[in-house]
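Forwarding the complex inputs:
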Amino acid sequence: MTAQPILLDVRDLKVHLRVGPVLVKAIDGVDFQVRHGECVGIVGESGSGKSTMARAVTRLMPNVAIGELSGDLKFEGRDILAMPDRELRSLRRGRGFSMIFQDPLGYLNPTQRIGRQIEEALSRDDAAGSDKARVHALLDEVGLPDPVNLARRYPHELSGGQRQRVMIAIALASGPQLLFADEPTTALDATVQLQVLQTLYRLHRERNMAMAIITHDLGVVAELCDRVYVMRGGKVIETADTVSLFEAPRHDYSRRLIELSARHHNQEARA
Amino acid sequence: MGNSNTAAAPAPAAVNSDRGWRALFAQLLRTRHGSLGAGILIVMALVALMAGMIAPFDPLQQTQTSLSPPTAEYLFGTDNIGRDVFSQVVYGARSSLFVGLGAALAALLVGGTIGILAGYFQGPVEAVLMRVVELFQTLPVIILVLCAVALFGSNFWLLIAAVALAIWPMEARLVYGQYIKLRDREFIAAARVADLSTAHIMFREILPNAIQPVIVQVALDASIAILIEAGLGFLGLSDPDMVSWGRLLFVAQDYMDSAWWMSLFPGAAICLAVVGLNLFADGLNEVIDPRSGGATGGLQ
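Prediction (whole assembly, two chains):
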């Protein structure tokens, strides 16, 4: 794993947002790396800037007044911030990065069938069979049974777990090398959470696709991730291998997070 | 009340899985408002289409007796120069319904286009277009239409255009509001990220989500258009070569105390058409949301 070259290299990222008259330093000088085929966890409390970082890196920041956006963001050596929109779009459409979100229903068009929505996200340069067949293959790959029937359904006819799997299929449609998963299981109930996480992990291994999982659930990190970034107040306060973080957290805040999470899981186990 | 409820109960969500126009219509007929409104409209449309077969006389043909009260021969009586009021009301359905639908569709086209453009593109486009909409909204409808008719004459097509001119701002505001709301939704952002063309996003992604209240508004607009057309006819400004309900009232106002039938029947026809369209719109409103499971709730 260590021999893999770096896929995403973020140095000194700063995202300052304008909220009314106030300048909020959402991200204040963050370094962040993902290697090819690696699974990285980003943990932290709400408002610690973990989602903002993922959105800044994928340049998905609509509807916010950006005061300052600076840093050195390189994806496969290409500068993401300086990239013209066309190049950025081709990166999103083919072998670049994708993202899945906490609330899958919001990201699905309520009046379009599932199949069409996945079709729209397929990478264009690929000569891998007909669009329909590729859609069905994707639905199958994310673990949805009866893809032919499912492709004809509307989002409101699916369960929460199915919707999140559809979102994952859409994210995979462009064949990304890096998948950002922003709280992918927070909106799901516990058993479905586990299934979706297992699916994500399987896809990560099978496709040799790098993943960056953003979560406040250290249990998720412990299960899936090779390396962890702990964020607080717009800064990375600790980064380590998952094992060493859990065994010997260097930072006081990380230790408290781990203790809290352990207590929480024990309580859940008892209940 | 119990009747429609028991009819709606057996298959609440079944129609929902495959939503064609036919399924929508079937659902509509299961609501009380919708079935009543659709019934009235269908009968009116048939009357308008087959006016030649239904009406016993030519609407402009003079019969032997003038100002005859309703009899077996002259169902709705005759007017001051001996024309059969029943035949006139039947033929009047043509122009009234045509003006109603024509003006509502024209308003949809104009208002919809402007609403889409203003709602999708922010900034200067929005500012300019919406000020124009507001300008038209602040002008009194009837004055606007009067000016249009006075300037360009009372040709039938111009009449439709004039009525459409009066009602398009409502349509524009509604569509605008829908686009403002939907433009910032996550799935539209996702469509932009997926590099779909602006036209594709405007018409394929947003439009199907925006269209539902707009369809209802079109039905309501049609009833308003019929009222405006009747008002114009009553002021003597409709096309003199066409029989219209408003024009019948215009002629009837001098005989209000002696020949009640001349004003009652055209007035009732206008009323029926407007009520029919409003009920239809109410019914549509109840069934049209794709996420609502079947035709329950509302004013059943």
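Confidence is low (pLDDT under 50) at residues 1-18, 293-300 of chain B.
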